[in-house]
Amino acid sequence: MRKISLAIIAGSLFAAGCNSAGADRAAADNTANAPMRSERMEPTTQHTFENMPEKPAGPVKPTGGKWSAAGDPIDTTDFDKAIADAEKNLKAKPSDAAAKTAAVEAYFKRGFALTEARQYASALGDYRRALKLDPNHEESKKWQQQIIGIYEMMKKEYPKPGEEPAPLPFKKEGA
After folding, report:
1. How confident is the model over 39-63, as pLDDT tens digits?
2. Which one, of 124, 107, 110, 122, lies nearest residue 76 by Cα?
3. Residue whose C-alpha is closest to residue 132's, from 111, 155, 156
4. Can you tell me the distance from the alpha carbon of 96 to that of 103, in angstroms, rounded to the nearest whole number?
5. Integer distance in angstroms from the first to the last C-alpha of the chain?
6. Euclidean distance between CA atoms 149 and 90, whole angstroms
7. What is the pLDDT of residue 170?
8. What percent of the chain has pLDDT over 90?
9. Are 116 and 100 in contact (CB under 8 A)?
10. How far apart are CA 100 and CA 69, in angstroms?
């Protein structure tokens, strides 16, 4: 009888231990599955600056017109000079393939820099200018489609050819 009582007690203790361990594990699993962040989730459109209203205290003011440039101002001085030089050479030698290629690359490089600065509407203009000179420029085609696709995905209108704003003005520190 004593052996049966010890077996029942041991079995009860074993069962109680298993149940509490299971509860502890379930609590730990629920904690592990809880979201790591406490802040509210935001849609991707919260992180874009395209077509957003101007913030009154912001240092960057829109350039006006239907499409105002948005994003981060960058120094495009070198890109602008390369484009001006390439356009001058192309005007002097309109049938020169090297001059045309230089102009296409100059527009593409500034467009890519503007894309990285999130000045998408302005970048679109440079990709279009490159494609006007060379309709087969693959990188410009790819980036133009990418930017238009982003606008369409957000269900926003994108600038039509000729409506693209100029890049944002860049002010050097201390100036």
Report:
1. 555 554 445 555 554 443 433 444 4
2. 110
3. 111
4. 11
5. 97
6. 31
7. 85
8. 52
9. no
10. 27
Q: Are 68 and 165 in contact (CB under 8 A)?
A: yes
Q: How far lies 60's CA from each of 96, 112, 118, 119, in Å?
A: 40, 21, 14, 13
> Which pLDDT does position 138 carry in this prediction?
97
How far is 161 from 98, CA to CA, in rounded Å?
25
- What lies within 8 Å, CB to CB, of 2 at 6+ separation is none
The residues spanned by each domain of the chain are 66-175
The structure tokens 């592990």 sit at 32
Structure tokens belonging to residue 124: 């679109």
- The topology (CATH level 3) of 66-175 is 1.25.40
Q: Exposure pattern of 125-144 as b/e (b: 16+ CB <10 Å)?
A: bbbbbbbebbeebeebeebb
Given a contact cutoff of 8 angstroms between Cβ atoms, the answer to whether 72 and 116 are in contact is: no
pLDDT digits (tens, 9 = 90+) for 87-131: 999 999 999 999 999 999 999 999 999 999 999 999 999 999 999
- Give φ, ψ of 107 to 5 degrees: -65, -40
